[in-house]
Write a structure and sequence with these properties.
By secondary structure, the protein is an alpha/beta fold. It is 38% helix and 15% strand. Strands 2, 4, 5, 6, 7 and 8 form a six-stranded mixed sheet that branches. α1 (24-35) crosses α5 (107-115). The model is unreliable at 1-28, 30-67, 69-90 and 381-391 (pLDDT under 50).
């Protein structure tokens, strides 16, 4: 790895760069990240060799169309008719149960809801926007960063128990990579917080360079179409994302993982024997497991060996053209603010209140929303010009 690991990332200063609101291509990239969870399962990293350099560690790519959270596109039977759904009002099935039943919420579900609840509602009922060139470039950058520390290999899954076993194994090996080599990337998380199951994938985790501080630093890298730093609403959304990851991480290391509820919620058979190929992989990785229940036990044991995440979190902003660093946003974890944000999002997902529109001072977001022409917040005949009336 580069020499950056030898220095504390928390000491880096943010350069003086002009701040823009957003560009159309940039908003396309944002919406891709906010609209849904990642479209494919994250890489899995067996076998793990403690004596290898981080660049040579292998990983497994699962041949499955399931995303980490178990959902990709809106199901046809779930899309329904938007007008009829609106008429049902309080009698409608909560969005959480309708779209995330047996799947759990992704962290991007939470951040997309914070960005604009009404947009999130439209995304669920009408589907997300098509992938653009900017979105593909951002995704490619994250893939390249991951490949700097892992080498992918391929393995097929035969059941949803196999799929979950590989997700858990990916975490176990990534956590050991962090402990022994000081860095891991694209680490999947599954945890039970605020009464719901939540899933996510952490871009990067670093161990501090100092021997006295052993709390892992959670890092997220955002790519920018222009060489400017994002506006505050975008920074706030990125902070929410990282705080969710820390909250999940800290709950896991405190062993707040109800195994029986996990099996029940995701309709999994804990005694399901894993496929022969997966059992061989777990054995080669040094974590032999016969059943999914074995993998869950290993997952919890691994979590119990990890320290809580650092209270200082780090957002990095890169220029998409040349991957140069534009700046870093170092900020402190705020438990009260985070819980308020999550509770506000859950009220929407649980149907306890209707979707809110984005605040008037942030109504510029509407200019880049694909649903602006049909959103009740925008009554202007020009869908690209937001209406600044109170909602």
């Amino acid at each position: 790895m580069s020499g950056s690991l030898s220095e504390s990332p928390l000491k880096n200063s943010v350069p003086e760069i002009p701040i823009e609101i957003v560009s159309e291509e940039e908003m396309a990239l944002i919406e891709a990240a906010l609209s849904a969870a990642r479209s494919s399962i994250p890489a899995i990293r067996p076998p793990f060799d403690f004596h290898r350099n981080a660049r040579s560690i292998q990983s497994i790519t699962v041949l499955s169309k399931r995303s980490f959270s178990g959902h990709t596109e809106v199901d046809i039977e779930d899309s329904g008719d938007f007008a009829n759904t609106q008429k049902k009002g309080k009698e409608a099935v909560p969005l959480l149960h309708r779209f995330r039943r047996n799947k759990g919420l992704s962290v991007t579900d939470i951040t997309a809801t914070e960005w604009c609840q009404k947009q999130m509602e439209f995304v669920l009922l009408r589907g997300k926007r098509k992938t653009t060139k900017a979105m593909k470039a951002g995704s490619a950058r994250h893939t390249k960063l991951e490949e700097e520390v892992v080498k992918k290999v391929t393995i097929r899954v035969k059941s949803k128990e196999d799929t979950w076993a590989l997700k858990l194994l990916n975490f176990i090996i990534g956590a050991n990579q962090l402990l022994f080599e000081g860095l891991t990337r694209e680490l999947p998380l599954i945890g039970f917080i605020e009464g719901i199951w939540m899933v996510g994938v952490i871009d990067e985790i670093r161990m501090p360079a100092t021997e006295t501080d052993r709390n892992p630093i959670l890092v997220d890298t955002k790519t920018r179409v222009r060489d400017t730093l994002p506006a505050e609403p975008q920074r706030r959304n990125g902070r929410l994302q990282l705080m969710c990851y820390k909250y999940m991480w800290d709950n896991l290391v405190a062993d707040h993982f109800p195994s029986k509820q996990f099996f029940d919620f995701f309709t999994l058979n804990p005694h399901s024997v894993l496929s022969e190929e997966i059992r061989e992989r777990t054995a080669d990785s040094g974590f032999p497991a016969e059943t999914l229940d074995d993998m869950v036990r290993l997952y919890r044991n691994t979590c119990s060996m990890l320290p809580p995440a650092h209270d200082q979190l780090l957002l990095r902003y890169e220029f998409q053209k040349d991957n140069s660093l534009l700046g870093e946003d170092q900020f402190a974890f705020d438990s009260d603010w985070l819980k308020n944000q999550i509770q506000g999002c859950l009220e929407f997902w649980l149907g306890e209140r209707e979707a809110c529109y984005t605040p008037e001072e942030e109504r510029w977001k509407c200019r880049f929303c694909q649903f602006a022409s049909i959103c009740p917040a925008n009554t202007d005949p020009d869908p690209m010009t937001p209406n600044h009336t109170n909602t």
